[in-house]
């Protein structure tokens, strides 16, 4: 009999459907892989299973009994533990305090029994042959890999019947990742169910008995792991998309190099990134989430530090902070990812938001020229077709798409001609998405140079002239012309990563 | 290959990720405790200056006197420390202290059983109002600063309604509690020891660890199964309880009630904790530091007095010391962070 049976599972966040009628079933004693693109609904699914989020519709049966956990505690009581990708550890507690958090052995005074806790910690670490950890060390002194291992120990400390591993290998060095894969098989052999999420196909191949593929919040297929090819899996993960959304792509790139980056590095997040962005070009930046895209954009804009050389329009520059990036016609402007947090002042008017960073342009002899400001604001509102009652309407009251247009306007008014767009269509309705893509192509035709990241792969495929695929902080592949496809991006980001 | 056929490879311990670092990391520990050590140093310095200007500073009497002067702040700051470790702040203690003193000054009679009843009532009220703060913060998802600012104002108003000006009285034997002695130490000194004992116990309980963990990283705590609402109710409830205790103690010192006195303890309670190394961002800090911070703030008053300068210098000196403490914490924090990388 199946240990877990999920039927018709649905979850909405406001207007966004995260899961719709998803199904899933798995047996005790198997390693069951869960696959899907970013945003396919995997995270929501495991958040529901682990009690962090409640589902709207559908049913979950565990051991044939209805299962609807109110919180992570209730999930644990039913024997379900999750090792989160977004770690659930407490920075100011020690390793052992974290492992036994809320399940500590206690003394008669109801204080934590430290001696007993130490004994249990060492027994646990020994049983599963954990890599060296110092139980008394404070968590915030640990590296990311060590933290991931503590998180795994914390999951196992609850002796769960169902263990969910969400990208648990992604933060681990090769040897530890290998240890975890063997551990996973060992846990299945002990009769537990392990639900395994990974973007590394070779790992899934190595340990999974079966795999379930999610796309757009629904279950697409369930396979025996040895009865399906990599290509079939990738095709099913991507599915079919409509592409009427996208403008015609006319090559407008010239030979002039707008932005040249060499040996761009920052800690372990960016390692030796080289590329050149040409005038009139839309250069896409793709890959799986968290492989250095955010760091690349932030460092180019001067919001975080990086080493290496950057040339703008043929001149070497050093950008230490965003103020230096925004130097008029030769500068760089950024559309940031967190629109409400970084890009817009929600309680200020459209006009104030547009002109905030370019106030110098309407200042004469130290005085603000209201007429010049109004003229520029009107020009921008018309050009971008921002739907606001008046320029004095508060930015916070606009729709998501119009807010994003205000940010575009703000960026264009800086006169910078190298534009960094980080996920500019996130949370934007389909109609406005189309307008934004058209705008990007129009700007490219006018000689702007655009670096464009999107978490939605089809956008890269249909809008960018070339696509850089990032992996582990470096450029894994540069795709051009006919070679740009979702499959080729995903392949460069995933399949070949075993060689790295 | 079916599940049953698949050979199981048992996990083997991978090669150590890095050479084990044997022994205790003294430098790391010193850095962690830097703000606390700085507070101790400051206290020693102030005591040294004070002692060189005034005779009889190093006596039991002086300890009794100074502890008595600092105890109201210490009680209020104990609650504040719990809230700060949770990552919040409680401004309402000002209102609760005022309200507590006016209830005591208007309701206490010479009859001990009436006093006992009202004492319990004041403590219960403190906990309930604090719990209400916690509930509002959790359920309405409001900032602790704003919620407790509002309840401070409300409690203050109620205190004014009950007793518009300083006055009322408490029985003489109640005032005597504040000066009772055992083995040469007065009751405030014993209360100080009791506070330390309480903290030593409390921070080792599951509730204590959970409050600290929630202050350290709320999302992680939630994912680990913590009920954030419950944590807030307990945290702010305890803060209200200690504020009520501070009010009761204060009446043994003043013998009367005051509808405005509480505000004098709001920011000093935060300052004492910060001077003692409690992080305003939650997750870190100990009561021992807070109590030393409370002594520092109290002794500055004594120092200003024996220096024969205007008493207005006291807040100036307190501010400078607060700045120095914050600076010490941030320098230590940076050093610690650099060590990790």
Give a written overview of the molecule.
The complex is a heterodimer of chains A (500) and B (341). Chain A is α/β, with parallel strands linked by helices. Chain A has two domains: 4-238, P-loop containing nucleotide triphosphate hydrolases (Rossmann fold); 257-498, Rossmann fold. Chain A is 32% helix and 25% strand. Chain A has 17 helices and 22 strands. In chain A, the strands form five sheets. Chain A has a six-stranded mixed β-sheet, with helices on both faces. Chain A has a six-stranded mixed β-sheet with strand order 16-19-20-13-21-22, with helices on both faces. A four-stranded antiparallel β-sheet of chain A has the order 2-1-4-5, with no helix packed on it. In chain A, a hairpin with a 2-residue loop joins strand 9 and strand 10 (218-224). Chain A is globular and about 75 Å long. Chain B is an all-alpha fold and 341 residues long. Chain B has one domain (61-326): ABC transporter involved in vitamin B12 uptake, BtuC (Orthogonal Bundle), CATH 1.10.3470. Chain B has 14 helices and two strands. Chain B has helices at residues 26-32, 34-53, 60-85, 93-107, 112-139, 144-162, 172-177, 187-202, 206-216, 218-223, 228-254, 266-275, 287-306, 313-340; strands at residues 181-182, 185-186. In chain B, strands 1-2 form a two-stranded antiparallel ribbon. In chain B, helix 3 packs across helix 12.
């Amino acid at each position: 009999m199946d240990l877990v049976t999920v039927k018709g599972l649905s979850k909405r966040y406001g207007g966004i459907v995260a899961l719709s009628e998803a199904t899933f079933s798995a047996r005790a004693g198997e390693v069951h892989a869960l696959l899907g693109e970013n945003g396919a609904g995997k995270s929501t699914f495991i958040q529901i299973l682990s009690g962090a989020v409640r589902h709207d519709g559908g049913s979950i049966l565990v051991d044939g009994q209805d299962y609807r956990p109110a919180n992570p505690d209730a999930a644990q009581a039913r024997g379900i533990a999750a090792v989160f990708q977004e770690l659930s550890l407490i920075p100011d507690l020690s390793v052992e305090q974290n492992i036994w958090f809320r399940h500590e052995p206690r003394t008669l005074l109801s204080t934590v029994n430290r001696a007993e806790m130490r004994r249990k910690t060492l027994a646990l670490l020994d049983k599963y042959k954990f890599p060296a950890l110092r139980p008394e060390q404070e968590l915030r002194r640990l590296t990311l890999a060590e933290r991931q291992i503590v998180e795994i120990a914390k999951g196992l400390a609850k002796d769960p019947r169902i263990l969910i591993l969400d990208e648990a290998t992604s933060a681990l060095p090769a040897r530890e990742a290998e240890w975890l894969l063997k551990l996973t098989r060992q846990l299945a052999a002990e009769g537990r169910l392990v639900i395994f999420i990974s973007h590394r196909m070779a790992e899934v191949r190595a340990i999974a008995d079966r795999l379930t593929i999610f796309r757009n919040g629904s279950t697409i297929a369930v396979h025996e792991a040895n009865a399906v090819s990599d290509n079939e899996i990738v095709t099913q993960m991507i599915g079919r998309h409509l592409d009427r959304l996208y403008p015609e792509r006319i090559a407008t790139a010239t030979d002039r190099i707008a932005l040249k980056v060499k040996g761009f590095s920052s800690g372990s997040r960016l390692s030796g990134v080289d590329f050149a962005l040409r005038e009139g070009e839309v250069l896409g930046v793709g890959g799986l989430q968290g492989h250095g895209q955010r760091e690349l954009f932030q460092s180019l804009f001067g919001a975080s530090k990086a080493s290496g050389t950057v040339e703008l329009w043929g001149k070497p520059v050093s950008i230490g902070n965003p103020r230096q990036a925004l130097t008029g016609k030769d500068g760089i402007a950024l559309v940031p990812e967190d629109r409400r947090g970084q890009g817009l002042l929600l309680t200020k008017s459209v006009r104030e938001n547009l002109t905030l960073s370019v106030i110098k342009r309407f200042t004469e002899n130290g005085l603000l020229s209201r007429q010049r400001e109004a003229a520029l604001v009107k020009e921008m509102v018309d050009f971008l077709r921002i739907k606001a009652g008046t320029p004095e309407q508060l930015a916070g009251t606009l729709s998501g798409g119009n807010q994003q247009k205000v940010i575009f306007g703000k960026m264009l008014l800086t006169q910078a001609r190298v534009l960094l767009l980080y996920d500019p269509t996130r949370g934007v309705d389909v109609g406005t998405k189309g307008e934004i893509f058209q705008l990007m192509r129009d700007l490219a035709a006018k000689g702007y140079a655009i670096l464009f990241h999107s978490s939605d792969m089809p956008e890269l495929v249909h809008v960018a002239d070339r696509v850089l695929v990032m992996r582990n902080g470096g450029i894994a592949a540069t795709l051009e012309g006919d070679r740009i496809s979702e499959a080729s991006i995903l392949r460069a980001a995933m399949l070949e990563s075993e060689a790295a | 290959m079916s599940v049953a056929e698949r050979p199981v490879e048992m996990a083997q311990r991978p090669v150590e990720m890095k050479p084990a670092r044997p022994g205790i990391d003294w430098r790391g520990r010193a850095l962690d405790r830097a703000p606390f050590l700085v507070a101790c140093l400051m206290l020693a310095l102030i005591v040294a200056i004070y002692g060189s200007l005034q005779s009889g500073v190093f006596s039991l009497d002086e300890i009794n006197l100074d502890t008595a002067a600092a105890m109201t702040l210490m009680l209020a700051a104990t609650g504040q420390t719990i809230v700060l470790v949770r990552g919040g702040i409680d401004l309402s203690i000002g209102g609760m202290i005022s309200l507590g003193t006016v209830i005591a000054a208007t309701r206490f009679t010479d009859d001990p059983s009436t006093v006992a009843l009202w004492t319990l009532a004041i403590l219960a009220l403190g906990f309930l109002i604090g719990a209400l703060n916690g509930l509002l913060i959790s359920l309405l998802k409001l900032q602790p600063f704003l919620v407790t600012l509002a309840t401070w104002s409300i409690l203050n108003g109620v205190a004014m309604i009950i007793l518009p000006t300083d006055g009322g009285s408490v029985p003489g034997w109640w005032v005597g509690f504040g000066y009772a002695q055992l083995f040469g130490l007065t009751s405030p000194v014993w209360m100080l020891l009791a506070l330390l004992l309480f903290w030593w116990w409390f921070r080792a309980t599951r509730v204590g660890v959970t409050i600290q963990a929630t202050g350290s990283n709320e999302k992680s705590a939630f994912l680990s199964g913590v009920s954030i609402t419950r944590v807030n109710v307990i945290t702010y409830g305890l803060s209200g309880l200690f504020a009520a205790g501070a009010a009761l103690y204060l009446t043994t010192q003043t013998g009367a009630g005051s509808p405005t006195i509480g505000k004098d303890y709001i920011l000093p309670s935060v300052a004492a904790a910060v001077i003692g190394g409690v992080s305003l961002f939650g997750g870190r800090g100990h009561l021992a530091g807070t109590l030393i911070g409370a002594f520092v703030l109290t002794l500055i008053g004594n120092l200003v007095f024996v220096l024969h300068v205007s008493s207005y210098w006291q807040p100036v000196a307190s501010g400078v010391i607060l700045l120095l403490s914050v600076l010490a914490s941030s320098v230590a924090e940076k050093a610690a962070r650099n060590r990790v990388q």
